[in-house]
Amino acid sequence: MTPRQKRYWSGFVGVFGVPLVWTSLFLLIPYAVMLAVSFWTRKFPLFVPDFQFGNFRQVFTDPQYLEVLLRTGKIAALVSVFALALGYPLAYFLIFIVRTAKVRNFLYMVVIVPLWVSYLLRAYVWKIILGTGGVLNSFLMWTGIIDQPSGLFLYNQTAMVITLTYIFIPFMVMPIYTALEKIPPRLIEASHDLGEGPFWTFLRVVLPLSWGGVVAGATLTFCLAFGDFVAPSLVGGPDGMLVANTVQTQFGAALNWPLGSALSTVILLLVLTIITISERSERYGKIDLD
Amino acid sequence: MHKLYWWQRGLLGVVGGTMVYLYLPIVVLVVFSFNSNAVMSLPLAEFTFDWYRKVLANEAMLTALGNSLIVASCATVLTVVIGVPAALVIDRYRLPGLGLFRRTILLPLSLPGIVTGIAMLNFYRQLGIPLGLGAIIIGHSTALLGIVVSQVLTRLSRFNRRLEEASQDLGAGPIETFFKVTLPGIRSAIIGSALLSFTLSFDEIPVTYFLTGRDNTLPMYIYSTLRRGITPEINAIGTLIILASLVLIVASVSMLKDKD
Amino acid sequence: MKTIIQLENVSKIYSGGFKAVDGIDLGILEGEFVTLLGPSGCGKTTTLRMLAGFEEPTRGRISLDGQDITDSPPYRRPINTVFQDYALFPHLSVLDNVAYGLRTGKRKLGQALVAERVKSALGMVGLLGKADNRPGQLSGGQRQRVAMARALACQPRVLLLDEPLSALDVKLREKMQVELKQLHQQLGITFLMVTHDQKEALVMSDRIVVMHDGKIAQIGTPEDLYDRPASAYVADFIGASNLLHGKVSALSDGFAEVDLDGAVLRGRLADSARGLAVGDAAVISLRPERVQRVTGSESKESLSVFEARVMNRHFHGYDVRLDAKIGGRYQDLAIDLRRDSIAMVDSLPPMGEVARFAMAAADALVFAEDQQ
Predict the structure, then answer these.
(1) Distance from the CA of C86 to the CA of which of A12, A145, A146, C229 falls in 20 to 30 A?
(2) Tens of pLDDT along B68-93?
(3) pTM for this structure?
(4) CB distance from A1 to chain C under 8 Å?
(5) Which residue of C has its CA nearest to B187?
């Protein structure tokens, strides 16, 4: 080894040692342990090391678990769609309609700020808005639209979609905003110059160029909603439990860690698959603007 | 003021509606923290500070707050101390495996928190590490490491490497160069991501839920209180948290501004 | 004068197998102003970076004052660099930028000495009044000067300049060329500059190293390179040249006639072309400004007269450039005619017509064809 190579590698070890050890010890090994436990057998009240696929079989054959997985997928997809429907116009408005940079940055901050405000509180507040004795009911009664408090608002899937969309909109706006920001205004001028009106310019220029942001935002929103257990436990009813709540139960009342770990592993693999697909499609549709 | 097209007006409507959707709940939270009625319904009753008084006298809540501050501070320090060198190595060295390492570090950011929480719980159980604040700190710093790494990496990719060469050319060794040239260049990214880590750790539930022992953090305290029933006290705590978050945001924004 | 820097068989091969620098030998004398000149990708910047210590040679040895420095890191070399984009530290004031090298590493000088050296370095480049400014508040020329002051404050054995003036506009660049040259003469420090601008190299250097594909094409004084290029490549790169391809039709004591399928040009044989025989393929290189117009039927003994068809004409101010075609293969020939009177343009041959031109045989150089 030349002295220069020695310097290169000693620098590498010196700087990289701690992060590598930390990441292996507290990130890789825990995931590996979880994977291992998912193959164990439960012998109430204990679990014994084993290697069998019973837990996974249970996840995919027991209608109870399959149903909750499908329901979670449905809710997460709905949340993504609504967050996109509200978030895209918002980002578009900020970039292309707001004219001064100062106002734009301020409004962007305003959209992002809720991210910094406690996630728990943002879920909780919908409980007091939608509850039987809550703000919405009392408002409707006060104004005379209904005369009995309605229990229809809370503890169902609609409440959950509303709450989760509310929580995750900023995650949708951020990547779309970043993608739109990179589109040179001249491209839009060029499209107008070539005779295309606002609508077709949007479809043929703006949307394709911001597609990466849309995919990134939708992926993030879907994955985060898919694994949430706090909002369902606050505003979801009996038919509003998501897969994460089922996992939570396995580590609590049901006391079946192997099954819980198997479910958790399934979530992990599902999310990884989605992320990989979205990265591929993002790269596929990537257009270099420079 | 030029005339708006129909689609621009429609857009304006959607944007206005979304803004209301984003902020009305926060307004509700704040308003009801000052409402004397214990039931949160309209019309409003009298203005009161009672709920704040109750919060400040609530021992369990204050202990939880203290725990949260300890956890968030320690986790933030750890994420920076581990994350900055990790980002430096990923940026500087071209080695097979580093891409995988980067993806691993960023993984918990896109994974649902519950997966990380359960992985950690299994790991601690197997090693016999007791649950509690220490376990939570390790969990948070691992889960949030990706924030510091991604922010610092972004900044490093824009950093002019010639400056480091200039520093070495003028006689400064690698370590001196890092502290005199590289660090000032990425400082605002470090501060910004540290503040974000702090906030997210302070607010974290999914990982904390599985790792907490006897000591509660503030979100865990609120969460368990909520399951017993809702009280305007929570609104008062919430309003205080929002206030504190706002202070943090303003601080971080102004700090990031003066650099760029 | 003694050799200060010696490169022996230095190569830099990148991981893909690309040879950026291919076995060069070069000695630089103390106090010289040497320029590495070549188009982008010729290896000149890589050579400079190996001297500064940022790149490690794959093979070969670099020594400074007789000591091997091949393996020593940049911060242990008494060599300083003026970077192409200046690389001024944006977070430090001009003063702290210049003082950087004086407060660092092994060279930690006392406060008073630092102040004195910074003051003299800034005084040298005329920027004493800007000491407290940030680099962002300076103009391009001022930044360039700060970069100079910062490197010179360390009192290096050798100053490396990486395209130091390329970011400046034409007028400022010409002014800075003169300033840099004066600075070099005052200080007596060895300067090694990299540039792709042959004019800049000709104006400033004591010696020029022309590089081509990682190898040294020629080393010499500006006059050497301009008047006695070793190859058609150098002839073309230093000042514009017409390179016309043909066959040797006659040889006589150091001169050759090259037949371009119709037109015959006479030129001096380059040193490398001594072995040419009649009938060999050859290249004759002819500078546009060496060609004269021949009017009427006059013919001079010392001149070689030929015909070419004028295709186009461009006004350059001092000169008029004619685009012409010569010989049976219609090779491009650029001709610069001095515009010595305003009426001169009126007497130029009309476009599309064949006209007669001439040049001195001593001004054209003949190379063997395969040398390119």
Answers:
(1) A12
(2) 999 999 999 999 999 999 999 999 88
(3) 0.82
(4) no
(5) C91
